[in-house]
TrEMBL record:
Organism: Candolleomyces eurysporus
GO biological process: respiratory electron transport chain
Primary localization: mitochondrion
UniProt keyword annotations, A-Z: Electron transport, Membrane, Mitochondrion, Mitochondrion inner membrane, Respiratory chain, Transport
Family: Belongs to the complex I NDUFA5 subunit family.
Protein name as catalogued: NADH2 dehydrogenase
Gene Ontology cellular component list: mitochondrial inner membrane
Localization annotation: Mitochondrion inner membrane
Amino acid sequence: MFRLTRPLFNAVKRTTGITGLNVHPNPLPELAKTYKSTLDVLANIPETSVYRQGVEALTRHKLNIVESAKGDVAAVEQKLNEGQIEQSLDVASDELSLASKMLEWKAWEPLVEKPEPGQWEYAGQQTTASSS
């Protein structure tokens, strides 16, 4: 029978300490896969889209952190600065979901209807629908 010694037993993460957020058995490959899936979805959005530009840059940066960590979860957690690795997985899957929805919504296309006069006026500044 295999018995864990106390140091080994303490090294195995048993809980995230966050209700509803379970420990992932192999988080780094899953995180890299999610980032790559997000980049694949973003490739279908026009390069001129501000959403694509921002999310693609951030996702590539995070993917580089994961790939350069050589399996060191603690280093990834520290460099991503998003809390525990499971929280980073949660954020990544939410971004993947949003990217899919943005592709479906085609948010980069012009408005179907012209906005009402003053609709794009905030704090006394006049803007147009295309610049907001």
